Structures are given as structure tokens and as C-alpha cells.
Predict the structure.
Amino acid sequence: MIANNSTFALSDTKDYETMEMIQKPEIWRPDLLQLCKSYPNSTLYFDYPLSRETYFGIGGNASVYLEINQVNLLTQIAKFKTDYGLDTFILGRGSNLLVSDTGFRGIVIRLTGQLRQLTIENDLVHAAAGASQAKLAKSAARYGLSGVEFALGIPGSVGGGLIMNAGAWDSDFSQIVQNIRVVTNRGEIVDLTTEQAQFEYRKSKLDNFFCVIQAELKLAYSDSHQVTKKMKDFYQEKVQTQPFVSGNAGCMFKNPDGYSAGWLIDHCGLKGTKVGGAEISTMHANFIINHGYATSRDVFKLIEVIQLAVKDKFGIDLQLEVKLLGF
Ligand SMILES: Cc1cc2nc3c(=O)[nH]c(=O)nc-3n(C[C@H](O)[C@H](O)[C@H](O)COP(=O)(O)OP(=O)(O)OC[C@H]3O[C@@H](n4cnc5c(N)ncnc54)[C@H](O)[C@@H]3O)c2cc1C
């Protein structure tokens, strides 16, 4: 179960039946093993530590962690999870994610192989959801295509970028997407228009589907050197103003109308505030840093400290940008 609300409790929001089924692996596990065996390039782990797969470096274990490199297996898994009433979560690069210390009772799926490919045809990029945004930006620049320069400094996947409508410098995915291909919870493959995706600031309705698998992005013809320069300038500015190398999940909160969340947090005097191994970045107040030993509870407490202080001083409810898993 995933939540991204500004106010939340650590109480369990999971569906009761789903919980029941995941706790009865003898019912679904043999069939899952059998299904994955017929796709030899898939990789299946049980009780897998998600801290290895998130930028925060935080999080307990997933009941199942499955790497999938073929659409066919993905559609089968969609049907499987619906048939058995299991919970699933599609993990991109884990760069916008806080996983609970108790982990996730369900199947975490990551796209690999052909589900990470990019092909460029004239001014159109066919981008598989598992491709990295950095690779997308660099490939477009090489072909002299403008419109996605902002993405070099976003450490996520194309799928995560679409779900989040990721962006920077007044650009985002919604401005370049032509259509999106998804897999439904019944395992059907469906093409959606941008209108159906309902992109907004750092959100979309694409998470109503089981998985985003591909998008067609329309870029503008330009000069390769110019595009590369713009992309690198953006990147440089970013690494100079944001704590890029340490464990974090990017901006924790969305910017409220007319304000920068970082400015609000800074003006509450919270930079450098620590709980356990987590700290509000001294470089950019909208980032929380894991110094290597933070728990998700430490991060969560800092989230609450920030929300209370900003509400108290400015009367503003900060909304989380980062997604929560397993809370
Ligand atoms: C240092 C740093 C800088 C950042 N800078 C920016 C920035 O400038 N602008 C910005 O917008 N963001 C930024 N981010 C946040 C993050 O990189 C983006 O939101 C990114 O698009 C998330 O992609 P991901 O693949 O890591 O998604 P994840 O964190 O893995 O997942 C995020 C959500 O997307 C869903 N998801 C991922 N892939 C799929 C798929 N194929 N199908 C269905 N659902 C999927 C997940 O289930 C989850 O709900 C930054 C993060 C870091 C760590």
C-alpha cells in the first residue's frame, strides 16, 4: 500500500484480505515459482532487502522481489496478483521513495532488459519505462533533440518520471509525452493519451494501472552541441545547489502555490535538524539526508517536525512529494 498524503499515521492501511494471502505463501509461492521458471531471464528473490534498491538506502524487506525483462511475464504477473489478491509495487530506481523499516508484504517488481530500451525515430523517442532518465537525456542530446535536458539530473527511471510527472526548470514529462503504454491489473496492454494520464504538478493518474511500460516522447529538432550544453549547465547548477551524492530521495515536499518548500523549511530554522541518523540538509532544506544509519522512523519523525513547524509559522500544510511504501 502506498501513500503520499501530508498527514498520515503509522497505522496499518493494508487491505485485510491481501495481508492474509501474503501470509499464506504455501498457496501462491509454488505457482509463482512455476510461472517465473518459464521466463529464464527473470530473477526472483524472497525476503529481499529494499534498502539496497532505494536512494535513501533505507527500508525493510519485500516478501518477493522480481526482476522482469519481458512484457509477457509482466502481463502474467498482473493476472497472478489479481487472481491471488496479492499486493504489488513497481519499483523504478527508488529515487523518490521511503520504504518503512518493516518492509513491504507483497511483490516488488523491477523492469530490466528490453523494458529499459530506448529507440529514436526522427523527433520521437520510444522510451521503455525501465530506462534511466539520464540515459534518455543523453541520447536525445546526441541526436540533437531538445525538450528533455532537465532529466539528466533526475536519478529516476522513465516510468517513475511519468508517474511523478518529474521535472525541473519549468519543464516536465507532461510537456513531451505523446502517449503512454500501460499494463492493467487484468494483464491487458492499453495505450493512453496524455489527457487520460491527467498529469499535474508532480503527479499523474498513471498509478491507477498495474505498470507503465513505455512512452512516446516528442522532442524538438535542435543542435546537438546546444542541447548538450543546456543539459550540462542544468546538471551543474543542480549538483551545486542540492546534496546530490548522499542518501536521499530528492525533494521531500512539493512546493505549495507561490512558495518554495525549501525556503519555508529554511525560514523555520530547521536546516541541520537531526533525528537519529537522518538530518535536514544544510545545503537544501527540502532534502533529508541519511547519514548511513537512519531508519525510516527517523526520516518520518523529521517529516512531522517539518510539517508542524511550517504549519505553525506559515499556516501552510506541506504535501509529501516522496512516496511511502509499507507504512
Ligand atoms: C538527488 C535527487 C534529485 C532529484 N531531483 C529531482 C528533480 O529535479 N525533479 C523531480 O521531479 N524529481 C527529482 N527527484 C525525485 C525522483 O528522482 C523522481 O521523482 C523520479 O522520477 C522517480 O523515478 P524512480 O524511477 O526513481 O521512481 P521510484 O522512486 O522507484 O518510484 C516512484 C513512484 O513511481 C512508481 N513507478 C516507478 N516506475 C513505475 C512504472 N514503470 N510503472 C508504474 N509505476 C512506477 C513507483 O511505484 C512509485 O509510486 C530527485 C531525486 C534525487 C534522489
